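We were asked to recover a plausible sequence for a given structure. The inputs and outputs are reproduced exactly as logged, with field labels preserved.

PROBLEM: sequence recovery
POSITIONS: 276
GIVEN STRUCTURE:
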């Protein structure tokens, strides 16, 4: 069935936006109304609703509301990602941060790729550890998490197509993936290094669930949050890091206007945050 677009009224938009915000910290500007219409119209029709009012009622009161919230978040999150994205930060981790942690005699290093979407980021880190001859120098645990249950399933499978490889060097696929007709599967040695789970960055139980890390990557996620959401997540990351602990945000994500306890450091082509 080809879905037609169901228009969202102003009051419905504000109510739905609020539901999404409370569940995830993701904010939608009024100019993004069309995005909710485009992404959710098919779902409304699957449920035999012809207005957003009915869908909001369903989200609030139906017996299936908890499950539907997952479906809603799967539909509205932006999951764009690819291998070796924003590579200078990954190179900085390999050439500076990990050697600095190793120099302190640490033999066990935990890395969290928070909001990793389909998994290209944590797999890239596992691959670069090997490329930089760091794999054998410590026990690494890389954990990839995301709120979207569907992308986490894709990440666990580790099977990718062309778009995930835009911008990788020519030998990358051949060296680290098993090719099939149209897809490339991450080799087992990297799959074994990375563990995936569903996790909401604003869940109060998350720090207890995740434990402590030496490094956190959380890139291209906080751009969707408001200042309050960003601050809560930054504080949570601070608490989840060992001392010293290292946080890498996306290239374009500044913490300038957010009160936080991290020390900001410049590495030429980018910045990172340290818990000292
Ligand atoms: C654009 S992707 C970024 C992927 C990867 N970090 C990168 O930079 O390529 C943003 C991801 O953040 C996830 N996300 C959004 N809000 C979240 C939340 N509250 N908790 C966990 N993940 C969230 C989305 O599901 C999406 O997969």
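RECOVERED SEQUENCE:
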């Amino acid at each position: 069935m080809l879905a037609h677009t169901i228009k969202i009224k102003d009051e419905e938009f504000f109510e739905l936006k609020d539901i999404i915000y409370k569940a995830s910290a993701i904010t939608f500007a009024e100019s993004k109304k069309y995005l909710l219409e485009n992404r959710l119209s098919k779902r409304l029709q699957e449920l035999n609703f012809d207005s957003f009012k009915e869908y909001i009622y369903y989200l609030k009161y139906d017996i299936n509301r908890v499950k539907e919230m997952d479906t809603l978040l799967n539909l509205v999150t932006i999951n764009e990602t690819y291998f070796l994205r924003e590579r200078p930060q990954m190179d900085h981790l390999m050439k500076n941060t990990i050697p600095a942690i190793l120099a302190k005699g640490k033999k066990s290093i935990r890395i969290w790729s928070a909001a990793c979407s389909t998994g290209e980021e944590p797999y890239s880190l596992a691959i670069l550890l090997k490329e930089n001859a760091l794999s054998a120098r410590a026990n690494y645990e890389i954990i990839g998490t995301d709120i979207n249950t569907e992308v986490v399933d894709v990440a666990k499978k580790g099977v990718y197509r062309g778009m995930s490889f835009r911008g990788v060097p020519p030998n990358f696929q051949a060296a680290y993936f098993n090719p099939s007709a149209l897809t490339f599967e991450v080799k087992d040695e990297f799959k074994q290094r990375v563990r995936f789970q569903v996790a909401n960055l604003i869940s109060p139980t998350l720090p207890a669930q995740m434990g402590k890390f030496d490094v956190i990557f959380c890139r291209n996620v906080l751009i969707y949050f408001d200042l309050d959401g960003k601050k809560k997540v930054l504080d949570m990351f601070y608490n989840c890091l060992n001392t010293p602990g290292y946080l890498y945000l996306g290239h374009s994500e500044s913490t300038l206007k957010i009160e936080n306890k991290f020390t900001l450091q410049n590495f030429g082509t980018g910045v990172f945050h340290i818990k000292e």
